[in-house]
Amino acid sequence: MNIVVCLKQVPGTTDVRIDPETNTLRRQGIKNIINPFDAYALEEGVRLKERYGGKVTAISMGPPQAEEMLREAISCGADEAILLSDAAFAGADTLATSYTLSQAMRKLGEYDLVICGRQTIDGDTGQVGPELAEWLDVPFIAYVSKVEEINGDLMRVERMVEDGHEIVEMSLPGIITVVKEINVPRLPSLRGMARSRKAEIPVWTAGDLGVDEGMVGLSGSATTVVRIFFPERIHDGEMLEGDPESQVDALLEKLREARIA
Amino acid sequence: MDYGLSEEQKTLKSLARRIAEERILPVRVELDETEEFPRSIMKDLADSDMFRIFIPEEYDGLGGGCLDLCLVIEELSRVCSGVTVCYAATALGASALLEFGSEEQRQKYLPDIAAGKKLTAFGLTESTAGSDVAGIKTTAEKVPEGYVLNGTKQFITNGGEAELYTIIALTNKSKGPRGASAFVVEKDTPGFTFGKKEKKMGIRTSPTRELVFRNCLVPEENLIGREGMGFIMTMRILDRSRPGIGAQAVGIAQGALEAAVDYTAQRIQFGKPIISLPVVQQKIAEMATQVEAARLLVYATARTIDGGARSYTEETSMAKVFASDVAMKVTTEAVQVCGGAGYMRDYPLEKMMRDAKITQIYEGSNEILRGNIAVAVRKRKARRE
Fold first, then answer.
1. Of B96, B114, B132, which closes a domain?
2. Do B251 and B351 have their domain in common?
3. Pick from B48, B53, B62: CB nearest A188
4. Interface list for chain B against chain A, based on CB atoms closer than 8 Å
5. Whether residue B110 is found in the same domain as residue B124
6. Is residue A89 part of a domain?
7. Residue B218 forms part of a structural domain
8. CATH number, domain at B257?
9. How many domains does chain B fold into?
10. Does A186 contact B48 at a Cβ distance shorter than 8 Å?
11. Least CA distance to B43: which residue of chain A?
C-alpha cells in the first residue's frame, strides 16, 4: 500500500505575536515543530504500513528549513520524504497549497491513501485536505478517529461527528484527515534517526511540478489576509461604592437607564 | 563538562531524555503509588529501539557498548529509576545468552529481546543465597528429556512480567558453587509459577517476585554454556552489569540535584531565594561536585569494559559503590535543603531518596563490593603493578 502523509511545519508555541508593522506572525526565535495534527496523520500512516505493508511517503510544501521536519518524519517511521519548495510557492493560501500538493501527487504517480491532519494550528482552516481531494477527484473523509479496516480498495473508518461517531466506507485511492483521538504518535527510533541522517530528501520546485505559475503561491491564492489583529479588550466595568443599600439603588438606576429593569 | 561522547552517543542520550520527560514524567507519581508495571513505557522504549542497544547487530540489535547502555539508564533514572530497572533488568537477563549462549540460542531469543517483544529477568537470589551464592538450593536434575528444576527464587526483578528467565540452579549438589549451571526458562513452562510480589521502599513500579519451580521440565537445549559454569558466568555477568547500577545512581542523583536547585531558587525566606543563602550554596556545590565525580567514574569504567579489558571487578565495584553512595547522600541532602516540601509526596524528592537506597544494596551490596576492591588492591600490590 502506498501511503502519502502531508505535513506542515508550524511555530512551536501558543504564544503567538503579531508584528504590527507587517501584519505577519513573528517567527523569529520560535522553534518550528511538525503540526501536531499532522503527527497523528504520520503515525496512522506508519501503523497502516505495519498492518498492511507498503511504504509511507511524507510530503511538505514549505521553506528549505522544513527539511528538518521531514527528517524527523523519517526517524518516526516514514520511508521517504519530499519537500516542495520554491520562492513561487510563498504566500500560498489553502487553494494554492492544495493545488501544489495535488501536482506533487500527480508527479509521484501511484498512491492508495493520502492522510492529512484535520487542520493546522497556525492557519486553522482545515481546508487543504478536502481541497486536495477535489483537485485529484478522489473520495474524502474528514475527522477520522479510527481506521477499522482496509480490504482491497475498500476502506472502512470511524469518523467523529458533532454528536457521536459515524462508520463510513470509501473506495481507494482516497484521502482522509485525522483527529487526535486516532492514536498516540511514537517518538523517533534510533534506527529511524540513523536512516534520516543519511536520507536524501528531494526538493521539487515549481518547474519540477510543471505547475501553472499563476495557480501557486500568492498569485494563485483566492484569498488575501487584509489584516491580523487581536480582538480589542473592552474594559467597561464599573465599581459601585458606598454601603450595600446605596449600591443596590445605584445598580437599579443603571439597569433602568439601560432599560433592562 | 566534556564527556568525550560521540555524535551517536549524544543522540542516544537526548532521545532517552525525551522519552523520560515526555512519557515517564507524566506518570511517575502514579506508577510509584499503584506499583503497576509500566507496560506502555516498555513499548515506547522498544519503539525507539532502546532494547536494541545492548544486542549485537547480527541479532537485530545496534551493537552498542556498556557506555551506551549507561547513558540510557542514567537519563531514564534522572526521571524515574523504577521504570529504568524494568528496562535494565532485561539487559541483565539477556547477558548470559549474549555472552555464553550457543548460536542457536542467540538466534532463537536475541532478536525478540532486541525488538522489545520479550523482556527478561535474571534469577539468582534465594532465601538462603544472596551475597553468598554458594547457598543456592534450587536444583536442576538431569533426566533423558532435559533437566527438571525444583526450588524457589526470591526478590527477582521483572518476575511475572518477563517472558524469558535466566535461572541459576545446581546440576551437581556435591560440588557447591562449581555445581551450578545457567538455564533459560520461558514463561508458561509447566511447573514454573510466580509467588509473592514484594512491597518495596522504592522503585515500586518495578515488580519483584518469587519464581517457583516444581518439577519444571526444561529441554536440554536451554542449558546455557556447559554444566558447572553457572557460578563463573554469574560473576562475569555481575562484573559487567555493575556500571549500569552506577549509571542508575548517577541519574537519580542528577534528578535530585536539579529538583533541589529548582525548589531552592524559587523558595523565598528572609526576603530572598534560599539558594542564595551560603548554607544552601555549600550543600548544592557539594552535591553537584559529587554527582560529576560519580558520573566520570561510571563513564570511565564503562569505557574500560568497551575497550576490551579482560578483568574489571575492581573498577566496576568502585563505580557502583561510589555512585550509589553519592545517590544516597545527594538525595538525602536534596530533601534536607527543600525542607518540608522535600518530605512531601507532592514533590519528587522523597521518592528519589527512597529509590536511591536500593542502589547501595542490590547487584552486590556495597560492603561485599568493598571487599572485592580490597582484595584486588592487595593483589595488585603483590604483583607490584
1. B114
2. yes
3. B48
4. 11-12, 15, 18-19, 22-23, 44, 47-50, 52-53, 62
5. no
6. yes
7. yes
8. 1.20.140.10
9. 3
10. yes
11. A186
Residue B205: domain span: 120-228
Q: Do B50 and A187 touch (CB under 8 A)?
A: no
Q: Which domain holds residue A138?
A: 2-215
Give strand pairing partners of A9: A34
The fraction of chain B above a pLDDT of 90, given in percent, is: 96
Chain A residues lying within 8 Å of B6, measured CB to CB:
none
The CATH number for A158's domain is: 3.40.50.620
CATH number of the domain to which B107 belongs: 1.10.540.10
- In chain B, what residues touch A187 (CB-CB under 8 Å)? 15, 18-19, 22-23, 44, 47-48
ipTM value for the complex: 0.87
Q: Alpha carbon of B203 to those of A43, A140, B295, B354: distances in Å?
A: 32, 49, 21, 8
Burial class (CB in 10 A: 0-12, 13-18, 19+), B26: exposed
Query: In terms of domains, do B238 and B357 share one?
Result: yes
A164: left (phi over 0), alpha (psi -120 to 50) or beta: left
Q: Kindly report, residue by residue over B196-218, the tens digit of the pLDDT.
A: 999 999 999 999 999 999 999 99
Residue B2 resides in a domain = no
Contact pairs from chain A to chain B, CB under 8 Å: 31
Are A190 and B22 an interchain contact pair (Cβ–Cβ within 8 Å)? no
Residues of B in contact with A186 (CB under 8 A): 44, 47-48
Determine whether B363 is an active site residue: yes
Q: Name the residue among B19, B52, B53 with its Cβ closest to that of A187.
A: B19
Q: Which residue has the cell 542516544?
A: B12
Give tens-digit pLDDT for B304-322. Answer: 999 999 999 999 999 999 9
Taking only the tens of pLDDT, chain A with its 261 residues reads 999 999 999 888 666 777 777 666 666 667 888 999 999 999 999 999 999 999 999 999 999 999 999 999 999 999 999 999 999 998 888 999 999 999 999 999 889 999 999 998 887 888 999 999 999 999 999 999 999 999 989 999 999 999 999 999 999 999 999 999 999 999 999 999 999 999 999 999 999 998 888 899 888 888 888 877 777 877 778 888 889 999 999 999 989 998 887
Gap between the Cα atoms of B180 and B262, Å rounded: 50
Is the residue at A245 inside a domain?
no
- Return d(Cα B283, Cα B164) in angstroms, integer: 44
CA atoms of B257 and B285, how far apart (whole Å): 10
Q: Quick check: A187 and B18 CB within 8 A? A: yes
Contacts of B44 in chain A (CB under 8 A): 186-187
Q: Regarding beta strands A32-34 and A9-11, do their DSSP bridges make them parallel or antiparallel, or are they unpaired?
A: antiparallel
Could you give the 3-state DSSP secondary structure of residue B113?
Answer: helix
For residues B295 and B269, membership in a common domain is answered with yes
